[in-house]
Design goal:
Blueprint (H helix, E strand, L loop, with lengths): L2 H53 L2 H11 L3 H25 L1 H8 L4 H23 L3 H24 L3 H21 L11 H35 L2 H17 L1 H19 L3 H15 L3 H17 L9 H26 L3 H26 L1 H24 L8 H27 L10 H26 L1 H9 L8
Length: 484
């Protein structure tokens, strides 16, 4: 399967999964409110950091070593053994410190935190094995399965009156199912690892784990800081804004997942030209969705958040800043994936360290100074610093071209989209001049949905007209039977 087609399969899979999660979050927000969502977000952020300690970069090391094609079965078993031992230790520690965990979150959740650490590490190890086999499209297809099952179980348990408990149990069920399903597809087999296999994984992991820490810092440091410093309701508002933002990063994430094994293989084969082309392509298409998303969040962010409930509208500015941060971070992520694929996790380690320290410090300072908007601003500043450092680092290792022209055309298409959406917004507001959008929640959702569809059509039609490369890419990745 072509790289573009793999990226598209991964993107569509993540899109379907995120769409399911998007609808489920709207339900939870309206039924449970921002406070319960705040507790839920705090648990997931805490689990994300604990699973990072349980993984310790072994997942990235598995992906790298398996993708190289040399004794993949031994690396698979060694990786699962290492992660299993670490996961057990982390879960036991959580249970022993249960009182502290409960006090931090504000609810008795320690047992659920331990359970989620185990299930998430199992799932992530399976995904790492699939991506190492260059089956990223298969791994991507598991995303809607996970979110679909999770959402259905969560909704059922919430309807039954279990609230936060039901949401956490549903999350665990989705993780277990994906892990089991993924293992049935892994085809490298099983082989008894030797000490050198374990040492090879550890040698790579000791640097690459900080790359995971960087991703967690970008995704969850703000929620952890907010949980300690602001009311749970504001954490819930921030969580919803972040979920919307993550929806816009799907295509860039799909590209990263697809490109890593291809870059790793090209580097192992000494193909510098292929490495350069892959990095440039990743930068070209990283902003394909999130650049127009930035414009759209500024224009209809309030109406979008109103779908979740009136209390979430206060996160409109936070949403716009988070989308900006995600746009910058997406380019950084492409460069960091390239550094690790080129087997230079030591350089990525140093870049990540700067990003993490700056993000933590800025989050604390700005949240104390200006509230929950400060967390979004801190994330944006840290992402800009990380992008600068990762660009300079990769430039010293590989020759690649920054596609300024294509990015500029995406910006121009997004600007054209903005004009169309702004006009559509005025028409919608004219239906009831007393409010920004139609006053009824259902009508607001219909209006926002219509503006999103209108904007998407305007953006892609504009980009097709402006970019010959985009037209060629679309045509080359269409099935042969439908190409003109």
């Amino acid at each position: 399967m072509r790289i573009g087609q793999k990226s598209f399969v991964v993107f569509v899979s993540k899109f379907l999964g995120s769409a399911l999660g998007f609808v489920a979050t709207i339900y939870f927000a309206n039924v449970l409110g921002s406070e319960v969502l705040g507790y839920y977000a705090a648990v997931l952020a805490l689990v994300a950091w604990l699973r990072l300690a349980g993984d310790f970069g072994v997942g990235s090391a598995m992906r790298k070593r398996i993708s190289e094609g040399d004794e993949p079965a031994a690396y698979l078993v060694a990786g699962f053994a290492l992660v299993g031992a670490l996961a057990t230790a982390i879960a036991a520690a959580v249970l022993l410190a249960g009182g502290l965990v409960d006090d931090y979150v504000g609810r008795p959740v320690a047992a659920f935190v331990a359970l989620l650490v185990l299930t998430e590490l199992f799932r992530l190890s399976t995904i790492a094995a699939l991506e190492g086999e260059r089956l990223v499209h298969v791994a991507g297809l598991l995303s809607p399965l996970k979110i679909g099952v999770r959402s259905l179980v969560q909704i059922g348990l919430v309807v039954a009156g279990l609230g936060l408990t039901g949401m956490l149990v549903g999350y665990a069920v989705g993780g277990v199912l994906v892990g089991v399903a993924g293992l049935t597809v892994v085809s490298v087999g099983i082989a008894r690892p030797e000490r050198r296999h374990v040492e090879s994984l550890v040698d790579f992991a000791k640097f690459s784990w900080l790359g995971k820490l960087q991703a967690r810092s970008f995704n969850d440091v703000d929620v952890l800081v907010l949980t300690a410093l602001v009311p749970s309701g504001l954490v819930g508002v921030y969580y919803v804004a972040w979920r919307v933002t993550k929806f816009l990063t799907l295509f860039g994430s799909a590209i990263s997942s697809t490109m890593f094994p291809e870059l790793s293989r090209a580097d192992a084969e000494g193909s510098e030209e292929t490495v350069s082309t892959l990095v440039t392509d990743a930068l070209t298409y990283n902003g394909l969705l999130i650049i127009p998303g930035l414009v759209g969040s500024a224009l209809i962010g309030r109406g979008l958040l109103r779908i979740y409930g009136p209390e979430f509208v206060q996160g409109a500015t936070v949403l716009w800043v988070l989308v900006l941060a995600a746009l910058v971070y997406g380019y950084q992520e492409q460069l960091m994936y390239a550094l690790n694929a080129l087997d230079r996790p030591d350089i990525a380690f140093r870049v990540n360290l700067v990003f993490i320290v700056s993000n933590v410090l800025l989050n604390v300072v700005l949240v104390v100074a200006i509230g929950f908007l400060g967390a979004a601003i801190a994330t944006a500043i840290s992402a800009t610093l990380g992008l600068t450092l990762s660009y300079l680092a990769l430039r010293s290792l590989a020759s690649f071209r920054v596609p300024v022209g294509e990015i500029g055309r995406q910006v121009a298409a997004a600007a054209a989209m903005g004009v169309v959406v702004a006009l559509g917004r005025r028409v919608a507001a004219a239906l009831d001049p007393s409010v920004e959008f139609l006053p009824v929640v259902t009508a607001n959702a219909v209006t926002v949905g219509a503006l999103v569809v209108l904007g998407a059509a305007a953006y892609f039609l504009s980009l097709l007209g402006l970019s010959a490369q985009f037209r060629a890419t679309v045509l080359s990745n269409l099935p042969a039977s439908v190409r003109p």
